[in-house]
Amino acid sequence: MSQDNSQFVNKWRDAIEDITNDVTDLIENRFVFNRVVKMVSENRELQQNNLYWDYLKLNHGSAMVLGISRQVDPDKHTYGLIKLLGDMSKNSPALTVDWFISSYKNPTMDLGKLMGEKDFRENFGTGSHVDKKIIEEDIKILKNATKIILQFRHNRIAHKNKDKSLSFSLDFSEIGKALDVLEKLVIKYQLLLNQVGFADGLLPVIQYDWEEIFYESWLKK
């Protein structure tokens, strides 16, 4: 790899790590929120209108909208997934199949070479370097998946019904769909840039019983 290509790749590797961390946080936040919703759905005593549930839904929804939007924000002060893909599309010759294969263990051995070639051909094209059309198609997929999210970013995403319950203008399922696309693309381009896989997705394994705080009453009457 030439020095110029190495500078490109090092920049992109740093970017994908930051992006992966941000998307992983969103995925973990969704997991916790969905788990709390399930707790409430299984406990009739908690199934009532309450300011706390409004607070929880509003802040979770707002945080998810902002977090997802950051990955497709054209603002020059942010560098999300959409900008990373754009940079790689413009400079796709820097990402060669030979470079990709060289990062595999024992790349000079037949097995390592075959595995590297297989992963590259299945995901990034059959030429000597990444096919920019594949990246451009992923950009389209990302834009389509987040279009509705962006429409709500600068708008009020929730309002009060006549019964004072909170109503979201944006369906949480739309947030989930957009996040699923983000996760899939982050995993794909982690494979390209760092030759690593995430077979179980980006959701981290939580190393302690985070639900333990719900076993005890928070207040004493």
Question: What labels would you give this structure?
Answer:
elongated; single chain; 2 strands; mainly alpha; 221 residues; two-stranded antiparallel ribbon; 7 helices
How would you explain this protein's 3D organization?
- A two-stranded antiparallel ribbon has the order 1-2.
- The protein is built from seven helices and two strands, in the order H-H-H-H-H-H-E-E-H.
- It has helices at 3-41, 51-70, 81-90, 97-102, 110-124, 132-153, 172-194; strands at 158-160, 166-168.
- Helix 2 (51-70) runs parallel beside helix 7 and helix 6 packs antiparallel against helix 7.
- Strand 1 (158-160) and strand 2 (166-168) form a beta hairpin.
- With 221 residues, the protein is mainly α.
- Write down the oligomeric state: single chain
Tell me how many strands there are.
2
What value does the average pLDDT take? 88
Shape descriptor reads elongated
Low-confidence stretches: none
Number of helices: 7
Q: Termini separation (Å)?
A: 68 Å
Rounded to an integer in angstroms, the radius of gyration calculated over CA atoms is 21 Å
Beta-strand portion reads under 5%
SSE ordering: HHHHHHEEH
